């Protein structure tokens, strides 16, 4: 299962390839999570970029153990033991997770099997989705969550508003990542992500939370192997957010505004 998250640029890397070779009798390396960041990158920032998100007004997910895997085919994800910290009490989340975020009084946790579960504050669990490829990304007000699944050979963006789940099929995507929500409190809001079609070049996409207006914004007609002078736009280092008529991104330390189509304004 793909699980690719950028490492915090200011953090010391947790590269699996730097681990000592493990014997058949010791496939796992189990360690307590220690200070991962240098002075320029907080523990919270590193955790978010490794798939464990936080939220300032809700309970927090805290990593207590980390398991590094070295599969035969190459690099693999880290597995975590986490607790849901409500301040007054801490609820250990059963079994390993490879990503998660506090959500609406509980937590969304992604299991190594691809199961996305909603763990309530009393420890009860509800299955939200299966075949999930990336940890959920929350809106700033903790209302919405988005992730991606694989369905019938297509990577599908999924949005949940706390009451219902919507899956946006039919766009022939083979990858979805770097999801960013618009920072406004409304029943309907925009989100952006980096996506690619089979044979195509990865680019920026955007849509409304109900699936309306889902559009490719950059590199939409380029194919792998096309010359770069045919309208290639470099992928951003960060998606900064939305303006009324534009998506703002950062490319090589420069802010770039990408005009949005009418249906996304």
Radius of gyration: 19 Å
The biggest beta sheet is recorded as:
4 strands, antiparallel
The strands making up the biggest β-sheet line up spatially as: 1-2-3-4
Strand content: 35-45%
Low-pLDDT runs of 5+ residues are: 1-41
Number of helical runs?
1
**What portion of residues is helical?**
under 10%
Question: What class do helices, strands and sheet pairing give?
Answer: mainly beta
- What's the pLDDT, averaged over the residues? 80
Q: SSE string, helix = H, strand = E? A: EHEEEEEEEEEEEEEEEEEE
Distance between the termini: 35 Å
Report the strand count. Answer: 19
- Global geometry: globular
Keywords:
four-stranded antiparallel β-sheet, mainly beta, 3% helix, 265 residues, disordered N terminus
Question: How would you sum up this structure, described in words?
Answer:
The chain is an all-beta fold. It has a domain at 1-129. The protein has one helix and 19 strands. The protein has one helix at residues 43-49, and strands spanning 29-31, 60-68, 78-85, 90-92, 99-103, 106-110, 116-119, 125-129, 137-138, 145-151, 154-160, 165-168, 173-181, 190-197, 203-208, 215-216, 238-242, 246-251, 254-259. The protein has a four-stranded antiparallel beta sheet, with no helix packed on it. Strand 6 and strand 7 (116-119) form a beta hairpin. The longest helix is centred in the N-terminal third of the chain and has 7 residues, at 43-49. It starts with 28 loop residues before the first strand and ends in a 6-residue tail after the last strand.
């Amino acid at each position: 299962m793909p699980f690719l998250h950028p490492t915090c640029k200011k953090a010391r890397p947790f590269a699996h390839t730097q681990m000592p070779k493990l014997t058949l009798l010791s496939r796992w390396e189990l360690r307590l999570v220690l200070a991962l960041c240098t002075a320029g990158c907080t523990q919270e920032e590193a955790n978010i970029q490794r798939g464990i998100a936080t939220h300032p007004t809700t309970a927090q997910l805290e990593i207590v153990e980390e398991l590094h895997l070295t599969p035969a085919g190459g690099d693999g994800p880290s597995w975590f033991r986490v607790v849901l910290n409500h301040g007054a009490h801490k609820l250990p989340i059963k079994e390993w997770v490879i990503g998660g975020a506090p959500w609406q009084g509980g937590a969304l946790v992604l299991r190594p099997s691809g199961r996305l579960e909603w763990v309530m504050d009393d420890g009860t669990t509800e299955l939200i989705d299966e075949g999930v490829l990336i940890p959920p990304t929350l809106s700033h007000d903790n209302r919405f969550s988005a992730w991606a699944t694989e369905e019938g050979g297509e990577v599908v963006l999924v949005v949940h508003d706390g009451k219902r789940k919507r899956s946006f099929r039919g766009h022939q995507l083979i990858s979805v990542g770097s999801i960013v929500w618009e920072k406004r409190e409304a029943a309907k809001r925009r989100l952006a992500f980096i996506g690619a079609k089979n044979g195509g070049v990865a680019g920026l996409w955007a849509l409304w939370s109900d699936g309306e207006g889902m559009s490719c914004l950059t590199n939409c007609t380029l194919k792998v192997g096309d010359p770069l002078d045919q309208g290639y736009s470099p992928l951003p280092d960060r998606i900064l957010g939305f303006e009324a008529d534009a998506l703002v991104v950062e490319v090589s330390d420069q802010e770039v505004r990408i005009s949005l189509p009418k249906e996304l304004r």
